C-alpha cells in the first residue's frame, strides 16, 4: 500500500507542475495568513504581524525554490521547456523541419523494413515446438558435396540405429487432385513417414495423426488435413473425421485435422502416409542409392549437434562395411533446420542490412549538416546565453532538444514507412524467399526503430551542438569573432559531406556490380528459346499405374494439343529445366571407357522426354536425331546426350551408336542416337553438367511438364489447353501455367530483388549526397559573400569566381571519392558470392561510379557557384 | 560543547514529530507546527523552512498522504494524515527512539 501512496505522490509532483506549484503557493499563503493572525492575537500590529510571519519562513522565494527542487523534476522541467522552445523555433522554419524529418524518416523507414525482413527470416524461431532441436540430416558424397536427400533404406537405418534423436521422419511433397467435391482442384500435400508429426511437435486439434502400419502397402487410405482445408470443405464441422476424400483418385479417410497455421512442408493442406515398399528397411541394400527423401529429425534433450554428428559418422562407417557397393563414400551430416532453410538467402539479407545502414548514415550526415547550418545562425543568441550564465552542458541540451524533436518525428514517419514497406514485401515476395510468414512488424522491429532513432538523434544533434557551443563559449560578442566561428562550422560540414560522398561511392559500386552481374545473368543463353512458349504441369493419379496407361494418356494429350490452332510444337519433359533441377543417376558404364570402381561412379543428370520436346523448346539437335515414335517400349533402348556429355564421355569422337549404362535405367545399356545442345539445368549460375535424355515411352513418369510453343501469345491458348485436357481425362486438371519467359525470370527472382533494392538505395544515396553538396556550397558561398564581393571589386571576373568555387567542390569530391574507393575495394569482396561473371573489383564499374558522382557534384555545386559569380560587390559590402 | 540550537536538535527528529502529531489527528501544515509547539509546551519550535520539505519528503515516501479540506473558519487548507505504512513507521521509530533514550540516559546518569 505504501507503494501506492508513494508512487501517486511522486508522479503527481513530477508531472502536474502547474497544480503542484499552485498548491505549494496556496499552502504557504495559508500558513503565512494563520501565522499573521496568531501574531495579531498575540498583540502585534497588522503589518508587523505579517512581516514576522514572513520572516519565520526565512525567505519565501528561497523556500519555494527548495520545494521545487524537492519535486525531483528539475531535469524534466528543463526538458519540457527546451522542447517547447524547439517546437516554436521549428514552426518558424517549417522548410528545414520538413526536409530533416523526411530525410530521417526515409532512412529510418528503409532500415526498419529491411530489418523486419532480415530478422523475421534469419532470427525468428520456427513456429514449432522447441525449434532449436529440429535438425536436418544431410548426405555427403565423395566430392564433399552436400545434399538434402536420403534414400529409404538410409532413412530406416538412421531411424533405427542412431541414438541421438527422439524421432526421425522423412517427407516428400505430393500435390494431389481433390475430386468428388465440386470441381476438380489441386491441393498442396505431402507424403510423410510415421513419426513426422511427433518430430514437428504438432498435435492435431481433431482426431489423430498417423499410426504405425498406415505406411505399409495395402493399408487403408488415410489423410490428415489442414485447418484451412477443413474450414473450406465443411466450415468447421466436427464430422469431418471419418469422411472420405478422393485424393488423386484414391479414397482416403480423414482421421485428423491440424491446428491453424501448421502447413509444413511447402504450405501443405493435406498429409498422407508415405507408402513403404521393400526398400524401407534398414536391412535392405536395394534402393539404398535412390536419394530423394527430405528428412527432419528431433535431437534428444541433452544431445548436442556434435554428439549427433559423431553418432552418424559411426553409423555411416557401419553401413559402408555392411553394404559396400551402395554406401561407399556416403556420409551423413547434420544441420539445424532453420539454418538449412535460410542459408541460401542469408548472405543477400546481410548485404541488404549493411547497405541500408550506409544509407541511414548518409541521411544522418545530411540532417547533421542542416543542424550545423542552423546552429551557426544562432551564434549570437548562444553567446548571449553563455554571458548570462548558461553552462555549456545546458546549451548542448537545448540544442539537442531540437534534434530530439526532429528525430522523434522522423522516427514516427520511419515506422510508418517501414510498416508499409514490410507489407509490400509480404504481399509480393520475390520467388524463393523462405519464411515469408515470419516477416512482420512487431515489438522487435519497433525496438530496433527506437534504437535507430535514438542513434540518429545523437548523430545528427551532438556534432552540431558541441560544435556550436564550443564556438559560443569561446567567442566574444563582437563583430570579428563571427568569422572564425563560421569557418570551423563550415569545415565540420564539409567533413560530413565528404563522408557522405564516400559512403555513396560504396553503395553505388555495389549497385553497379550487381546490375552488371544481373545483366550478364539474363543475357546468358539458357539453351532453349523462351519467346512464345508456355509450360504447365500434368500429374496423373495413381489410377494410371501402368506404363501403357501413362503412354497412352500423353500420346493422346500431345496429339490433341498439336492439333490446336496456333500451336507450332508441343512436347513433355520430366522436370522442366530452370523450374526444377534434374535427377541424377550413376554413370555405370560407357562404351570405350574403363568402368569406375563401384562406389566412386560419377553421376549424370537425366530427364525423360517425349518426341517433339526438343522442337517445342527449340533445343538444337547437333548430331544424329531426337526421339520419335519408334522409340517405344520393347524397341531397343535409346538415349540422347547433351554436348557437355558428348565432350566429357567421348572426347571428339562421334557418340552416335555408342552405348551408355546408368543406374536409373536398371543397368541396361542405352544406345546414343543423338546429341543436343546444352540447356541450363536449374540456375544460370550453375556449372554446365553432362545430361542424358530417355524417351518417355521407355521411361515413363506420372508427372510431367508439357511445353507448348505458339506462333502468337502463348497464354491465349490456356482455355483451349484446358479443354483439350478435359477431353482426354476430366479428372486430370492442368496446373502452374507459366510462360517459358516467366520460368526463366522466376529462376533469377532473388538476384533481381537484391539488385533492385540495392539500386534504389544507391539512387537515394546519390540524391542525398547531391543535396548535401548543394547545401554545403550554398552555405559557404553565402558566408563568403563579403570575400567574393571584395574580389570582384578588385577585378576578378565572374568566370574566375565560378572556377574557384567549382575547384573547391572538385577537391572535396576528390577526397570523398578516394576515401570511398578505399572502403569499397575492401567491402566489395563481401559481394563476390552474389556476382555472376563480374569481378568484385571490376574497373569499368568503378570508373562509371566515379564519373556519376563527379557529374552529380558538379551539377549540385553549379547553382551556388553561379550565385557566387553573380555577387554584386557594392550591395554585399554595404550589407556587412 | 557549543549549545545546539533547537533547529539543529530538531532536524533529525522532525519526521518523527510530524508522524506522531498526525497520529493524533489529521492536520494542515500550520496546524502541525502549532500542535508541536503546544505539546512540547513551547520547547520545540519547528522552523517552517524545514517543515514543508519534511512533509513533501514524507509524502514521497508514502508515509503520509494529503487532501484538501476546510478549516473551522471555512477556509481551504491542505490536510495531511498518516497512511498505514506511516503508522507502522511511527511505531518502529518510537521503539528505536526509546531504546536510544534509555541508552543515552544510562550513560549520562552514570557516576
Give the overall average pLDDT of chain B.
84
What is the count of β-strands of chain B?
3
Main sheet of chain B?
3 strands, antiparallel
Q: Could you tell me the strand content of chain B as a percent range?
A: 5-15%
Radius of gyration of chain B: 16 Å
Question: Whole-number average pLDDT of chain A?
Answer: 86
What structural category characterises the helix and strand content of chain B?
Answer: alpha+beta
The helix content of chain B, as a percent range, equals 55-70%
Count of helical stretches of chain B: 5
Largest sheet of chain A: 14 strands, mixed
The proportion of strand residues of chain A reads 15-25%
Q: What features would you describe in this structure?
A:
The complex is a heterodimer of chains A (880) and B (111). Helix content of chain A is 54%, strand content 15%. Chain A has 880 residues and is α+β, with helices and mostly antiparallel strands. In chain A, the strands form three sheets. In chain A, strands 1, 2, 3, 4, 5, 6, 7, 8, 9, 10, 11, 12, 13 and 14 form a 14-stranded mixed beta sheet that branches. Mean pLDDT of chain A is 86; it is low at 477-481. In chain B, 59% of the residues lie in helices and 14% in strands. Chain B has five helices and three strands; from the N terminus they run ααβααββα. In chain B, strands 1-3-2 form a three-stranded antiparallel beta sheet. In chain B, strand 2 (64-70) and strand 3 (76-82) form a beta hairpin. Chain B is globular and about 55 Å long. The A-B interface holds A 1-10, 13, 23, 26-28, 30-31, 34-35, 38, 56-59, 63, 66-67, 70-72 and B 28-30, 33-34, 47-49, 52-53, 56-57, 59-65, 75-78, 83-85.
Amino acid at each position: 500500500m505504501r507503494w501506492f501512496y508513494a508512487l501517486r505522490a511522486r508522479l503527481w509532483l513530477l508531472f502536474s507542475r502547474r497544480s503542484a506549484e499552485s498548491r505549494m503557493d496556496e499552502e504557504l499563503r495559508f500558513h503565512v495568513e494563520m501565522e499573521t493572525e496568531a501574531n495579531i492575537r498575540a498583540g502585534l500590529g497588522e503589518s508587523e504581524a505579517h512581516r514576522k510571519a514572513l520572516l519565520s519562513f526565512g525567505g519565501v522565494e528561497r523556500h519555494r525554490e527548495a520545494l521545487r527542487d524537492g519535486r525531483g523534476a528539475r531535469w524534466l522541467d528543463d526538458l519540457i521547456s527546451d522542447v517547447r522552445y524547439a517546437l516554436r523555433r521549428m514552426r518558424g522554419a517549417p522548410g528545414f523541419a520538413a526536409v530533416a524529418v523526411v530525410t530521417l524518416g526515409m532512412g529510418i523507414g528503409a532500415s526498419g523494413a529491411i530489418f523486419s525482413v532480415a530478422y523475421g527470416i534469419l532470427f525468428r524461431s520456427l513456429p514449432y515446438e522447441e525449434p532449436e532441436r529440429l535438425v536436418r540430416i544431410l548426405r555427403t558424397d565423395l566430392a564433399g558435396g552436400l545434399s538434402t536427400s536420403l534414400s529409404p533404406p538410409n532413412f530406416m537405418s538412421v531411424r533405427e540405429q542412431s541414438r541421438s534423436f527422439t524421432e526421425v521422419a522423412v517427407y516428400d511433397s505430393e500435390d494431389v487432385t481433390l475430386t468428388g467435391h465440386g470441381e476438380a482442384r489441386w491441393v498442396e500435400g505431402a507424403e510423410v513417414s510415421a513419426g513426422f508429426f511427433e518430430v514437428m511437435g504438432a498435435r492435431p486439434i481433431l482426431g489423430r495423426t498417423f499410426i504405425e502400419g498406415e505406411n505399409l502397402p495395402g493399408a487403408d487410405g488415410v489423410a490428415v488435413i489442414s485447418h484451412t482445408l477443413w474450414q473450406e470443405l465443411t466450415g468447421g464441422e466436427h464430422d469431418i473425421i471419418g469422411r472420405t476424400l478422393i485424393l488423386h483418385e484414391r479414397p482416403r479417410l480423414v482421421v485428423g485435422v491440424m491446428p491453424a497455421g501448421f502447413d509444413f512442408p511447402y504450405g501443405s493442406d493435406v498429409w498422407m502416409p508415405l507408402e513403404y515398399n521393400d526398400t524401407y528397411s534398414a536391412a535392405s541394400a536395394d534402393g539404398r542409392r535412390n536419394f530423394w527423401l527430405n528428412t527432419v529429425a528431433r535431437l534428444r534433450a541433452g544431445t548436442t549437434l556434435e554428439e549427433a554428428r559423431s553418432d552418424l559418422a559411426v553409423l555411416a562407417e557401419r553401413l559402408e562395411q555392411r553394404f559396400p557397393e551402395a554406401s561407399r563414400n556416403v556420409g551423413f551430416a547434420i544441420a539445424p533446420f532453420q539454418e538449412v532453410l535460410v542459408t541460401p538467402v542469408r548472405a543477400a539479407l546481410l548485404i541488404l542490412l549493411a547497405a541500408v545502414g550506409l544509407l541511414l548514415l548518409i541521411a544522418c550526415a545530411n540532417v547533421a549538416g542542416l543542424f550545423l547550418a542552423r546552429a551557426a545562425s544562432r551564434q549570437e543568441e548562444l553567446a548571449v546565453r553563455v554571458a548570462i550564465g548558461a553552462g555549456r552542458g545546458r546549451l548542448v541540451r537545448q540544442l539537442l532538444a531540437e534534434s530530439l524533436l526532429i528525430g522523434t518525428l522522423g522516427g514516427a514517419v520511419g515506422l510508418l514507412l517501414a510498416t508499409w514497406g514490410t507489407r509490400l514485401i509480404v504481399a509480393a515476395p520475390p520467388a524463393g524467399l523462405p519464411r515469408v510468414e515470419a516477416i512482420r512488424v512487431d515489438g522487435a522491429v519497433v525496438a530496433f526503430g527506437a534504437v535507430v532513432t535514438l542513434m540518429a538523434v545523437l548523430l545528427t544533434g551532438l556534432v552540431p551542438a558541441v560544435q556550436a557551443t564550443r564556438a559560443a563559449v569561446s567567442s566574444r560578442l563582437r563583430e570579428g569573432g563571427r568569422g572564425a566561428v563560421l569557418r570551423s562550422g563550415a569545415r565540420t560540414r564539409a567533413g560530413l559531406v565528404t563522408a557522405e560522398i564516400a559512403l555513396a561511392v560504396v553503395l553505388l559500386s555495389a549497385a553497379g556490380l550487381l546490375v552488371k552481374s544481373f545483366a550478364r545473368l539474363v543475357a546468358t543463353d539458357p539453351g532453349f528459346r523462351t519467346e512464345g512458349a508456355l509450360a504447365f504441369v500434368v500429374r496423373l493419379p495413381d489410377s494410371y499405374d501402368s506404363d501403357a496407361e501413362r503412354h497412352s494418356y500423353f500420346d493422346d494429350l500431345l496429339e490433341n494439343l498439336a492439333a490446336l490452332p496456333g500451336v507450332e510444337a508441343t512436347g513433355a519433359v520430366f522436370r522442366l529445366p530452370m523450374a526444377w533441377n534434374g535427377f541424377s543417376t550413376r554413370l555405370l558404364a560407357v562404351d570405350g571407357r574403363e568402368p569406375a570402381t563401384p562406389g566412386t561412379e560419377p553421376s549424370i543428370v537425366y530427364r525423360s522426354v517425349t518426341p517433339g520436346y526438343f522442337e517445342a523448346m527449340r533445343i538444337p539437335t547437333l548430331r544424329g536425331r531426337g526421339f520419335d515414335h519408334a522409340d517405344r517400349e520393347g524397341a531397343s533402348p535409346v538415349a540422347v546426350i547433351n554436348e557437355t556429355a558428348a565432350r566429357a564421355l567421348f572426347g571428339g569422337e562421334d557418340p552416335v551408336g555408342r552405348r551408355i549404362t546408368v543406374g536409373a535405367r536398371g543397368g541396361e545399356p542405352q544406345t546414343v542416337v543423338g546429341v543436343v545442345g546444352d540447356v541450363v539445368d536449374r540456375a544460370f549460375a550453375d556449372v554446365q553438367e553432362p545430361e542424358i535424355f530417355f524417351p518417355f515411352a521407355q521411361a515413363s513418369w506420372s508427372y510431367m511438364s508439357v511445353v507448348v510453343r505458339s506462333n502468337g501469345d502463348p497464354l491465349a491458348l490456356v482455355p483451349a489447353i484446358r479443354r483439350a485436357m478435359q477431353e482426354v481425362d476430366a479428372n486430370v486438371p492442368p496446373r502452374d501455367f507459366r510462360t517459358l519467359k516467366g520460368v526463366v525470370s522466376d529462376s533469377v527472382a532473388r538476384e533481381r530483388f537484391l539488385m533492385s533494392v540495392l539500386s534504389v538505395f544507391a539512387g537515394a544515396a546519390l540524391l542525398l549526397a547531391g543535396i548535401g553538396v548543394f547545401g554545403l556550397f550554398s552555405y559557404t558561398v553565402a558566408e563568403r559573400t563579403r570575400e567574393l564581393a571584395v574580389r570582384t571589386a578588385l577585378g576578378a571576373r565572374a568566370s574566375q569566381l565560378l572556377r574557384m568555387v567549382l575547384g573547391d567542390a572538385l577537391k572535396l569530391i576528390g577526397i570523398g571519392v578516394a576515401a570511398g574507393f578505399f572502403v569499397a575495394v575492401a567491402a566489395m569482396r563481401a559481394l563476390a558470392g552474389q556476382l555472376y561473371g563480374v569481378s568484385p573489383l571490376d574497373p569499368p564499374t568503378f570508373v562509371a561510379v566515379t564519373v556519376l558522382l563527379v557529374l552529380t557534384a558538379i551539377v549540385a555545386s553549379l547553382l551556388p557557384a553561379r550565385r557566387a559569380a553573380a555577387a554584386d560587390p557594392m550591395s554585399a559590402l554595404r550589407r556587412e | 560543547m557549543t549549545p545546539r540550537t533547537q533547529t539543529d536538535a530538531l532536524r533529525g527528529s522532525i519526521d518523527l514529530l510530524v508522524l506522531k502529531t498526525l497520529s493524533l489527528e489529521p492536520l494542515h501544515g500550520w496546524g502541525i507546527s502549532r500542535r508541536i509547539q503546544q505539546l512540547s509546551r513551547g520547547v520545540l519550535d519547528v522552523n517552517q523552512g524545514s517543515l514543508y520539505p519534511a512533509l513533501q519528503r514524507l509524502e514521497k515516501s508514502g508515509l503520509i498522504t494529503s487532501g484538501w479540506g476546510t478549516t473551522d473558519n471555512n477556509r481551504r487548507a491542505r490536510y495531511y494524515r498518516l497512511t498505514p505504512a506511516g503508522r507502522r513507521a511511527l511505531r518502529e521509530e518510537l521503539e528505536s527512539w526509546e531504546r536510544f533514550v534509555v541508552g543515552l540516559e544510562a550513560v549520562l546518569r552514570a557516576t
